[in-house]
């Protein structure tokens, strides 16, 4: 299969073009020996690889090193690259391109953001630039596909050309001769061995002289003020203001959480009701044998415990995608830098922490872009405090148990306020933990941090929706696989016991004497004296001070594999042998202790919420921390520290309430 790579600086629209070319024909994996995500797809029987953005082949971060290595591999096999440039910042884009040209890789130069170039009244002489670079040059808009036909012609006819090495002649004085030899020496011998600072600065400054000359020849600046930049400046006067910008950010987050409840309520009720009816239908349609109970009491309730949260998770990823697509998230990074420095961190920590709202695993991976190793370690250790999407199912069901379906001022949901508070609590805890960790690690003063602020753009809806689909699919598939296995294991442990039937019959009779002849007494007794029942009762003395019974204990234990398993486990446990096939929330509200008191009281639910805010309940995250730190020391410290914080916080909350 033919191969091409998309190469360019960060934020030039590579991923948007990648999605435009490959659509749903894409997959993600990890690079060999690294946790950096690899995105690849197919277009017309051609493999397309979307490389992480980088500023220079002299890599400063692990992500950049991955891209640099891949580019050098392409140069060795002669595979072509599509170089994506930001048409509004052509000079910046040409710096990396000049290094690509040194390697003599077949290339096509793609200038993105055609619409913004026209709106800014810039004029780029494409023919002159093509002659100067020595390879095809086209202008596109990856957002709406304008220029895609010309790009497809290049791909179909393989019109890539080896560009002019217009900067290489400047470096004959470097050690080992030409710069291309130096690149390959670094690549083949020691990937951490790079030019010293003086040589690197000399390299960059010489390139910039040549590149500035090219841009002066091919780019005609507008004769009037740039309307696009004027519009961006006006918005930034508000959104980057220390006070108004911070308030706008908090208001944005608040509206996101309100929308997650308001917009998701109806589809969630529909999904919950559908699976409750499906479980009942299976029981009445299939013969009364073991596999009927397995399907109706284990598999269906377990999967329902994940699928019911698709609407909320999709809404979260959609709204975050819109903020990213418009350029607002870069402003959030800028605003957060000043705050983070008070906690021993810097602006380079913003993206990993914000990414933790979706999932800790890619967030911890993205910490590789932090140059300060001690700060990077601190961010890895505190990121799991950020409220990831796996906590969302737990928060949603517990909030629904204790907070009314009411509004404040007739508009804002009380449940939305509660969810917003939990997210803020997780974030505040991460910052406080970061402060103590950086003090303990004696982190060096954080260096000056810079971030590129793109112009404000209308959302790329195709890109946003494709991202929502991929991320939601990933959540469902990954969580679904775990829950499928755990549901079957739970059912086996809950429907088998170490006693004979005479013993069970005696216990059923005792319970009926106390509770009356309820339809669920037999099922409750069989569950209590099953293998899983004994496991729950074994840990009950430890969790009883937190307000939990042995059934909640089972859900706690299973959710250490992945937090979202908590809801699936409860769905399975309360479905086994139960005559109540209603929605899971209604069944939890009816759950009673032996003395008749409700299980899910205000104190117990608050205790559970706090436990899940603080506890490290994700084995995958621990594995990533182990890989990123190179030792089991840090994930073990992280796990124990977060568990102790979760336990004692939940204990205090329950005892007070």
Query: In what range is the share of β-strand residues?
Result: 5-15%
Rg, alpha carbons: 29 Å
Number of strands: 11
Please identify the top-level CATH class of the domain at 2-220: Alpha Beta
- Sum up the overall morphology in one term: elongated
Task: Itemize the secondary structure elements and their pairings.
Layout: E1 2-7, H1 14-22, E2 26-30, E3 37-43, E4 46-50, H2 62-77, E5 81-86, H3 90-102, E6 107-112, H4 114-119, E7 123-124, H5 126-133, E8 137-139, H6 148-157, H7 179-188, H8 197-218, E9 219-220, H9 227-239, H10 244-262, H11 265-285, H12 290-307, H13 310-326, H14 328-341, H15 350-355, H16 360-366, H17 373-382, H18 392-402, E10 407-408, E11 412-413, H19 414-441, H20 461-494, H21 501-515, H22 521-528, H23 531-543, H24 550-558, H25 565-573, H26 584-590, H27 602-614, H28 619-629, H29 633-656
Parallel strand pairs: 1-4, 1-5, 5-6, 6-8
Antiparallel strand pairs: 2-3, 3-4, 7-9, 10-11
Helix pairs in contact: 3-8, 10-13, 10-19, 11-12, 12-20, 12-25, 13-20, 16-28, 17-19, 18-19, 18-27, 19-27, 20-25, 21-22, 23-24, 24-25, 27-29, 28-29
